[in-house]
Amino acid sequence: MVNGDGAHEHTEESDSKQDGNGEADGGEESNEQEVIVIQDTGFTVKIQAPGTEPFDLQVSPQEMVQEIHQVLMDREDTCHRTCFSLQLDGNVLDNFAELKSIEGLQEGSLLKVVEEPYTVREARIHVRHIRDLLKSLDPSDAYNGVDCNSLSFLSIFTDGDLGDSGKRKKKGNELEQIDCTPPEHILPGSKERPLVPLQPQNKDWKPMQCLKVLTMSGWNPPPGNRKMHGDLMYLYIVTVEERHVSITASTRGFYLNQSTTYTFNPKPANPSFLSHSLVELLSQISPAFKKNFTALQKKRVQRHPFERIATPFQVYSWTAPQVDHAMDCVRAEDAYTSRLGYEEHIPGQTRDWNEELQTTRELPRKNLPERLLRERAIFKVHSDFAAAATRGAMAVIDGNVMAINPGEETRMQMFIWNNIFFSLGFDVRDHYRELGGDAAAHAAPTNDLNGVRAYGAVDVEGLYTLGTVVVDYRGYRVTAQSIIPGILEREQEQSVIYGSIDFGKTVVSHNKYLELLDKTSRPLKVQRHNVLNEKNETVELCSSVECKGIIGNDGRHYILDLLRTFPPDLNFLPVEGEELPPESQRQGFPRQHRHRLACLRQELIEAFVEHRYLLFMKMAALQLMQQKANKETKTDVPAITENANTPTESNADTPQTHTTSSDSSNAPTTEVSSDNPKSREVVLNACKAVGSISNTSFDIRFNPDIFSPGVRFPDDSTDDVQKQKQLLKDAAAFLVSCQIPSLVKDCLDHSALPMDGATLTEALHQRGINVRYLGTVLEFLDKTPAKAQLEHFYRIGISELITRCAKHIFKTYLQGVELSALSAAVSHFLNCFLSSFPDAVAHLPPDELVSRRKSRKRRNRVPGSGDNTAWASLTPSELWKNIVSEAQSYYHFAIECESVDQVVEKYGLQKSTLLREISIKTGIQILIKEYNFDSRHKPAFTEEDILNIFPVVKHVNPKASDAFHFFQSGQAKVQQGFLKEGCELINEALNLFNNVYGAMHVEICACLRLLARLNYIMGDHAEALSNQQKAVLMSERVLGIEHPNTIQEYMHLALYCFANGQLSTALKLLYRARYLMLLVCGEDHPEMALLDSNIGLVLHGVMEYDLSLRFLENALTINTKYHGARSLKVALSHHLVARVYESKAEFRSALQHEKEGYTIYKNQMGEAHEKTKESSEYLKYLTQQAVALQRTMNEIYKNGSNASIMPLKFTAPSMASVLEQLNIINGIIFIPLSLLPHIIIIIDLFSAFLLTHTQSVYNGSIIHSLSHSHSDGGKLRL
């Protein structure tokens, strides 16, 4: 069997997995038909609400009645209602019914909104909803990182929504009113990197005050006699006019009562203003409320929905302005209850997370609608669980949760909160003593999470994993897990029926587990193997020994402790008496690591198997050809047959695509025709050579227990174990000798373009390289001959290495800080790390409140207490000594610097970049202001500058598999030149993504970007603009306002704005992109050349020639540096510069540049190429112009003022010609539609970027193969 399958078969993967039909065509067609079933046509209903005109609403048959409720609660004229029912002909509609199931509901039906009596729950929901409406423009939730709010600034640069403003603006004479000069810090060559422009001030956020105070009254809850009058609760309100009122929420609505702050009188006031909605009541008693609330709602509904929708996972901002802390009853109440979201909506209050997580997995998945429902449920529960786990982990570290073993010392405590189990990342009871103690206990949770992710992706029916979230907060690592039913009542020894609880000393096995795990063994490349237990009996396993199987009280088969799902990394695991291959030894491996849990990544395993597969095919083919040559008879050629598709086919359209994917059911098998002994021998030889575990087919799997201390193998498997050891050594060597060089090659040809630490890590992970190899990668770069062209990569690598070392030190540093000194400690650490001030002294917080004796006694209770002042003794020189030694011991990389200024000097780093990286990695939020890092007289940070510490959260990202297959088929169609079909498929993918993820998600972002690109190429500029605007907003919200992806999205949007004639907006967007890029990675980056070419061209278009030249010449310099002086990119840069000089009538300079370009074209493409001819024509034209100009000048000199002057042609460039150049540099060529099917094209300019992006999201190797299939994705452009 061939292990896994290729990218080209991936489209059927889900179908075969779920329907068992492996045929490609059947799979895809059935898929498309199913989709059509879902897309039932919508219809329109009329809605009549009290006090408003009836209005039309477009609905779809799959919607629930509840979704109409949501729409009404969001609409401007009905948003103040929450407690109502919808009635059709006097019948109340069930909230959870689908519209198609309601009798008599059809096109044009009239639905009445009927006010219903309140209950306590409904009254609370109403108050909460009114509070949300009052806060709807307030960004403080986004700054504080709560309720899945996050920041977005696009609307500031586009002056609101692009769609409308595009129609409003006068297209033609827009030129006159543009001020094109960017702020000084954005110009090429500027050295200052201000922080404040990162968050421009949004004038909409100036709060319109509707009320001074809205809070629960101290008279709550109503006493018994008032309950019987229908009182539900009391509110206390202070209006803008300073009127203090007390309000009763009753079953009939809200009215004024006669209570004051100190006397309780619940009788209705006169007049009582009884109203069904709180807004109606307040509008009657406060004119300011009425006016401002209306204005606020107008503004709220004008905002783009994507600025308001919650994201699926919380995004934290590392900078924030000083926000006033306002009184907020709902927030106060939430802080002290364990509620999460609208928990009262769920009967039984706290959620049984384990039950929810497992039940969603058990949903049926036979056809597309079922799969969509299932994936949507899984995704929703996961994002809720991640939010709950994060909140719980913070509560645990902040000391708000009681331990279940309070008698033990702090680091050994465990906690349960909201049905989630929390443990700290310390080595409790010497469990990991053999493996590296605390370092191993810190690494185990992330390894375990990777295991959970891998088993979750294989998705075997009947095998269950725990919900797992790993949270790093305030220097502690907390693992949050869902609880197996019944596990807390039993001892672990009794419950484990598979695996080992003591790293292999005692081992048990179980047939059902072997059967379930066997289904995962092919996709995860795990070999079934035997080990010995304590009685020297053979026990069969199909996973590592640590993997434990427990049957819960619910009868489900759970596996946990998946920390060794993937085999060990021998480069970081020195073993007595074992030699590594020479490729590893030359690089100085094996190296001692902090712990013995270093594993190879799943991406590496898959790349290695793919590599071996190609080797296997080559060897077999070679031997067959030799046999054929020897024999010259055609009898037994068809010896190797592939039952899924032949290797030649699979590799014809996309070179190197035979990627293994995480699916087993339709892996192509290389079978042997048994009647032919010769061909059997061929396969046997090839199998032996590549280390296959079978002799008759290609099948590589790893035994994860090799080299585990404490695991013993039976004597009869000695050969097998030797083979496995060799495989592991080969895989370790493969990482060093193939994957690292291939990463460097991809960076050289710009198909990988990391911009910051996160995108660098992604590029490493995508190729299966762990971050612990960062030092090795940097050394490899250092020895590369083309080192100068990799300077950007080297710089990002160094800054990543330094900030990671600082993060390791910061982790232990924070553990010794008590809560009251947190901001002082963090600012002191940042001063030591970044400030040039040589003797940063910590400001101990004044002991205004704490008496020392008292704090001593309570030392042990909260994890974050420790010795209060040890942290204060850290000095800059000591911290940098520690960073240097950490770099040496962890990354085996020598940084020869003793201070931040030496590092900045030696490696060309920016302090703003280091600050951003360390803040994001550790969760620090700092005040947004200009910091003076370089002052030698005072430290850069004070404790007032540290606003918050956020958790850094790792969790599983469940996938929308069907949507992804449509997305991929769409991409493939586009690459074959079928734009229209591609466009349809991608639109379909977008629908399915929305169906599973809701409106906000990184993958939807990629989808929108590609759609916008296709719209643009097919000439629909307005649609391109609309889709790209959504992509930018989504990228800001889901990835962060200065994430490299967001920067790219801004550039795309600028191009489409320019094409739509919105020049000033295009410039603003490009300037924003340039500012963000300077902050994130500085000016010296290949991507900056593209950005500057764009800016230069737009400026040329608006006749700002001098400014344009500054940007274009900078682009020329950067292109020359990173692409080499003879590259075609440089030729194009020369041409762009020449055009601007021509517009300025400086023909000599223009000629000089165009000649350079011409020479490059001639040398690279030959005389006859059209580019060379074009350039030669342009040279002739320039020469004529220059001669004409010279003649005119001579005429003037000779004849003075009465010279007869030939009029010279000075033309401002036409918009069309500028747009044409913009399209060329952004990699877009328009092709007459008649030619389309015959031209194979590769679109996305950032195809490589897009792929890396989706890759990180899709932890499979599908994309990996796609990016191979045009590994020059950066160059081969449409």
UniProtKB/TrEMBL annotation:
Belongs to the CLU family. The keyword Cell division does not apply. It holds the Pfam family eIF3_p135. This is Clustered mitochondria protein homolog. The lineage of its organism: Eukaryota, Metazoa, Chordata, Craniata, Vertebrata. It comes from Sphaeramia orbicularis. The chain crosses the membrane at residues 1224-1251. Residues 1-31, 642-679 are annotated as: Disordered. GO terms for cellular component: cytoplasm. HAMAP family: CLU.
